[in-house]
Amino acid sequence: MVRVDNSRVDSEWLSMKEADPDEAEEEVAEGDAADGQTALDTTVLADPLSDEEREVLTKLRKHESEVSKVCSAAQELRVKGAQSAVDLRSLVEAADGVERLLDAAEDAELLQREAVSSQVDWPAEELKYARVIVLALDAWETALAKGKEQLTAEAAGGAIYSSLGALLRSFRELREAEAQAQASGSAAVQHADLGLAGKETALRPLSEALLDKALELKGEALQSFRTQLLNDEMSKIDTNLYSRQIGTYGMETMGKLMQMKVLISGLRGLGVEVAKNLILAGPAQVILHDEAPAELRDLGANFYLTQEDDPFDPSRAEACRAQLAELNPYVAVELHRGPITEQLVQQVSLMVLTETPQSELVRLNKLCRSAPNPVGFIAADCLGLASFVFVDYGDAFMCHDKDGEEPRSAIVSGVTLESPGTVHTHQDRRHGFQDGDSVVFKEVQGMTQLNDGKPRQIKVTGPYSFTIDEDTSKYSAYISDGIVTQTKVPHHIPFFSYEQSLAQPRHPGEEMHVPDMAKFGRSEQLHFAVQAVLAYREKHGELPAVRDAAAAKECVDLAKQINEARKKGGNPQLFVEELEEEIVTKVAMFARCMICPMAAFLGGVVAQEVVKFTGKFSPIHQFLYFDMFELCPATEPDWKPKGCRYDEPRSICGKDLLKDQIAILGSSFQEALANMKLFLVGAGALGCEFLKSFAMMGVGCAGKITAACRAATAMNPAMKIDARDAMEVRVGPDTEDTFDDTFWDGLHCVVNALDNIQARLYVDSRCDPPEESIPLCTVKHFPNAIEHTIEWAREAFEQMFVETPREGNSFLGDPTSYLQKLSTTGSGTSQLQRLKSIKHIIEKRTGPFDAFVEYAVFEFQEKFHDSIVQLLYTFPLEHVTAEGTKFWSGPKRPPAPIKFDANDDLHLDFVVAAANLYAATLKAPENRDRAMLKSLAAKVKIEDFKPKEMKIKADDKDTTAEGCMDDDEAVRRLSTEMSQKLKTLQVKADLQPAEFEKDDDSNFHIHFIAAAANLRARNYKIPEADFHKVKMTAGKIIPAIATTTAMATGLVSAELLKVVNYGERKVEDFKNAFVTLALPLWVLSEPLPPVKTVSKEHDPIVMGPVKARPEGFTSWDKVECNLGDATLQEFLDFLTDEVQVEVMIMSSGNACLYNAYVPAHKKRLKEKITSLWETITKQTLSPKKSYLTLEVSASDLDDGVDVVIPTVKFQFR
């Protein structure tokens, strides 16, 4: 137990601990050892007890167990060390345990006034309360102190100490108040200065006041500690590695995931996929279990087995463990040999079972549900072209975030006084809420009753309105402002056991998942097919043999028997009116097969379900069935063995086994797949998954990054990857010499694995959704969301460290020309700002680092103070619009200027990043010494700012020309000054513009944007964002995690198999897929046909008739023009003869090559189109480029009606 005595609450002890924590801990430990651990009345309450106190203690004996638990938990915290991030996580969990015990004690009325006899005088009662509180918080303080010793950021630890110091001082003052009360009566208590706000609080019983204060301080310390701990851990692991995952899960879920221990049984294709995805996600431990010997057929799906392992002596688990462990050094990957026992079940958080007999699934599911701490249970299997997943998280599972979406916010514009109250939101954008959402209000003026922070459930009545289930008729009238934000409310999801779910796979009021929109009812049919195949295994000890008609027939009979039994059982048991024998037959025929697309798809799904055990996202409830029967040939193919890794017969354990892919698709299909020429663009996470899948499938050629290609050929030595095919160059307009027309025309298929929108759009354009933009004025002057300030900060980075150095080089290279062009671009205000930046670079480029810090401080002052002062000068807080409404209302949040303070961490973050980026621009050494930079920044003298008469746009519709008239004259003066100064300086145009790189946290790029975005948010009282949120948004990173990457790879790989013989397929064989694993939701549908261009009697754009020629053409159609290097006139004549049109306008990209309405363009008719293109675009055509794509606007030769034709492919070589 933990001793509480005067020394523990004395300020001298606190000071000593801050100076030397180890010495303080030794003193306490010696005292603890001397006290003993038996008598509650002498160890919990160390002071001599009065009669009244003993009476209270006697009445509390029935709660001794709760007190003991708190004390024991506190003692565990005392003795625990914190030598690593794992230990720190353990401390946090233990501290959470203390908090839960305190909550339990409150429930047991241990801390309630009703638990104490009303006859007892208050001093003893209050003392008892205070001591129990301080007992727990004493242990809390120790845990936080130990945590602080390991944290790199001392500021967070300092904040924790400050809060706890205030708590301990309050306790000391409580003791003094008790002494006064005993001496002069309880009235003296009212005068005790506890540092608690408000007279009302001071008049409350001291224990209640202290309890409130303690819980408040504890909550603040806990949040600070958790956030700092997780941030510190992520920095130690590798934030670049985890950035996309953190962006998806968030820090809290990552913390929970890092505590999990997961058992995976069965290591064929599905099991190894689950293990790989999960290890990359980062749980504490993954235990592999599979004692079956590896077989040759496993090579088609298990990417960690190779033919070099022949003969396969080790088990599959042993063969895979070492390579799986290499995926993530922060995950312990271990083996379990022997059966899965009850003891093992109780040691893990969750288990995933594949290739497991039905009876074993039932047994292990019961053990999971009956464990002291419920263990998550997932069963899954790939049976050829069919698969299933079953999830059971027990009866008491709580989901804390059903969809993982960022909470939406809207600006309140009005609230009615009625029942139920109707809330109206500002019409600048739709609120985006849904029925049943819970929301909280803040900053509402007038109807302040809504600002209580209480979640309120809503019912949507329109895109800009909703009702709250609350009577607002007696509330104060709404005046103005207010923000309403979605909030995540935990909800309970009960699960059935596996045994019960076999007969009742649907919960009341729910339907089974329907992944494919064309297959309604398929899940119910697959339920009986899979149960029949598993029953066959129970009966025969193995799955049905491949393409064994007799075994398939037996499975059909078993399915019918199961269905008939369910019919007799009636509701709620599931049955179908008629069993589809073809479905059962397909499942049975290929049940032994494991192909890579299905294993990858299901491996991603299952691994994501493991993550959901943390309470993040909605788990599968409870069965998911999925099939790829479109891949099944219409007739039996030539599937007999031919001696390759995909089908070679092999005698293992006395059984001849066939490779699975050819058993399903056939040898001729495999040969066509092997000869396929495929271009894989991108070899990051998604690209490497594709490469692995293509290697497993035997695709002929793929690749971009050499290292990834080496790994793929190790998986499949027969894979054809020429060294020239593994190209480490960017695919884009600037590399068309490498990826020329011949290259693109020679491909069978392109697979896009790029992780940014721009690159994807470029590749899509060669093979043949705009982002929602933020209004310019919103970004520039009137942000109301963190996304706005991040966009502003990203633009500030571009302006300061990209555009300014470029313009500086232009000025240094040719000052006269630059200044002449400057006078024609932008307002005088923007010109002045650009000139000042260039002037500073020229003057300070050879200065010490002090100059770079000064530059950073001046930029801080201009961006976060002066510009805000100017904005408020132009639009004062009391400003009203021409319509008489308040200017600063709705989406326009009134800002407040920030004065630079070198002691503020965020201010210093900005200075450190800006100064070092400025140094990089000038090719000067960096300086990461925060203490030195802080000292330098504090010495910078900042001049007082006086606002000017300036015009600023109120919104994007405002046509006002922004700027200040006085700035035009300032530009002229500064231009003259800089021209003269340059004559005396010997400087070169060698400034180094930054190249924005989001994935290198050491380059200060994201650090600058994060600091600038959050400072801007402070200006406008917008909640700030963490580093990872800024990184994801500013870097336009598409969130990606191993689970969804694997799942998408499986779906794409299945579609690639269909491309091999696409000429023989129907369009409905192909699938578009929309998937969100968070909900979870799968929507597969057939692709839509390309849009056809047809003739119209009236086109709203041209305001008249339009002809399509040819009728019904699509974007895939082209007009082929093979005239060679022809002139413009020859080209126009060609279109006249071939398409019967007169060309009015012709363009290539953004370049207009010919306009018949411009008389001067007639002289272009004799020029070659290639020469025109080079002249107008100021670019040189690559020798490897053989054609141009041209767009024409034309009219009919006979009646002059506008004619639309396909894009023209002008082949000039």
From TrEMBL:
InterPro entries the record matches: E1_4HB, E1_FCCH, E1_FCCH_sf, ThiF/MoeB/HesA, ThiF_NAD_FAD-bd, Ub-activating_enz_E1_C, Ub-E1_IAD_1, UBA_E1_C_sf
Claim: DNA damage is one of the keywords in the record: no
Enzyme class, first EC level, given as a word: ligase
EC number: 6.2.1.45
Keyword Nucleotide-binding: yes
PROSITE patterns cross-referenced by the UniProt entry: UBIQUITIN_ACTIVAT_2
Basic and acidic residues bias spans: 1-19
Pathway where it operates: Protein modification; protein ubiquitination
Catalysed conversion reaction: ATP + ubiquitin + [E1 ubiquitin-activating enzyme]-L-cysteine = AMP + diphosphate + S-ubiquitinyl-[E1 ubiquitin-activating enzyme]-L-cysteine
Keywords: ATP-binding, Ligase, Nucleotide-binding, Ubl conjugation pathway
Name of this protein: E1 ubiquitin-activating enzyme
Organism, scientific name: Durusdinium trenchii
